[in-house]
Automatic annotation (TrEMBL):
Its cofactor is Zn(2+). One of its GO terms (molecular function) is zinc ion binding. This is Carbonic anhydrase. It comes from Glutamicibacter halophytocola. It catalyses: hydrogencarbonate + H(+) = CO2 + H2O.
Length: 209
């Protein structure tokens, strides 16, 4: 394991390239496990300078630091089932952008997503789940409908559409994030993770060009 200096000065594009390189190492079983030693731990005592914020699904198979081969202090991670936006997650993302000056937001979905699968089943059956799971389904249903309008009915295709919809929704809801994108301080990358081979596929972006 090795330690690297903080990389807060990265541009949005450079931040994405860094994540892409880490994911490629993970896919090829050439992981370096950077920034996971005691020296790195000590260097972060006084503060943090992550170069990306991950807004991903809570699925246990989607451990962001592992699939992108990064370490302590590299990423600010926010997770909800189906990467559903709520006030707490939105506030966390705004904090990362406005206070920590993170240059890249990654919306991280994955194939075979249970939350998206549930939303599709509810759409087909009309039987709503109990408790707050219903709230998750209600938030994902617009993505299911958007996918259907494009002729997409399978789970994995709907996951990609949900990532795209979440990317757009995030900017619609947050003026802080929208302004940061307009100013070139940050960008949003929509990513679909493949459970079978570990690839993190870019499916949408705002401000990344």
């Amino acid at each position: 394991m090795r330690s690297e200096s903080t990389t807060q000065s990265l541009s949005p594009k450079e931040a994405w390239e860094k994540l892409s390189a880490g994911n490629l190492r993970f896919v090829n079983e050439e992981t370096e496990h950077p920034n996971q030693d005691s020296a790195r731990r000590q260097s972060l005592i006084s503060g943090q300078e992550p170069f990306a914020v991950i807004f991903g699904c809570s699925d246990s198979r989607l451990a962001a630091e592992i699939i992108f081969d990064v370490g302590l202090g590299d990423m600010f991670v926010v997770r909800t089932a189906g990467h559903v936006i709520d006030p707490a997650s939105l506030g966390s993302l705004e904090f990362a952008v406005d206070e920590l000056n993170v240059p890249l937001i990654v919306i991280l979905g994955h194939n075979s997503c249970g939350a998206v699968t549930s939303a599709i089943k509810v759409k087909e059956s009309g039987d709503m789940p109990k408790g707050f799971v219903r709230d998750l389904v209600e938030h994902i249903t617009p993505s299911v409908l958007a996918a259907e309008r494009k002729g997409i009915t399978d789970v994995n295709g709907t996951v990609v559409e949900h990532v795209k919809q979440t990317t757009d929704r995030l900017v619609d809801l947050s003026t802080i994030i929208a302004h940061a994108i307009e100013e070139g301080r940050t960008a949003v990358a929509g990513v679909a993770y493949h459970l079978d081979d570990g690839r993190a596929q870019l499916v949408s972006s705002l401000g990344l060009d």
